[in-house]
Specification:
The protein is α/β, with parallel strands linked by helices. Helix content is 36%, strand content 21%.
């Protein structure tokens, strides 16, 4: 199974989460700026992005990328993850609904969120979710 982890990180928290998912999944790891392939070429994809502004995806790079990838998500296993520093996780709930509406099968059902930096326990859970994604 060909699996990718594609993320955007401003502080390094979501990058640490992405590394754990990629390790668990045995996946190719890409910062969104470095991804030049097509989501359609992968069987499973994990996307990572923190909450920004008024609990939205990062708007300059990640949101346009994800919008362009949505049409390729139907029938794929997808894992969503990210960190936040305020709010109640509305960005992840919205993102999960959007991903399900695109026809993806969500691993973990609602995505995995961490307030600020991930703990060792969070990283272990993300590694396990990565294994589930690739399994």
């Amino acid at each position: 199974m060909k699996t990718a982890v594609i993320y955007w990180s401003g502080t390094g928290n979501t990058e640490a989460m992405a590394n754990a998912v990629a390790e668990g999944a045995g996946a190719e790891l890409f910062a969104v700026d470095d991804f030049s392939g097509s989501v359609a070429d992968y069987d499973a994809v994990a996307f990572g992005c923190p909450a920004m502004g008024d609990e939205v995806l990062e708007e300059d790079t990640f949101e346009p990328f994800f919008a362009s990838a949505e049409s390729a998500l139907s029938g794929k296993k997808v894992l969503l993850f990210g960190s936040y520093g305020w709010g109640d996780g509305a960005w992840m709930r919205d993102w999960a609904e959007r991903t399900k509406a695109a026809g993806a099968s969500l691993v973990g059902d609602e995505g995995y969120i961490v307030n600020e930096a991930p703990s060792d326990d969070d990283l272990a859970k993300l590694k396990a979710l990565g294994a589930e994604l690739a399994g």
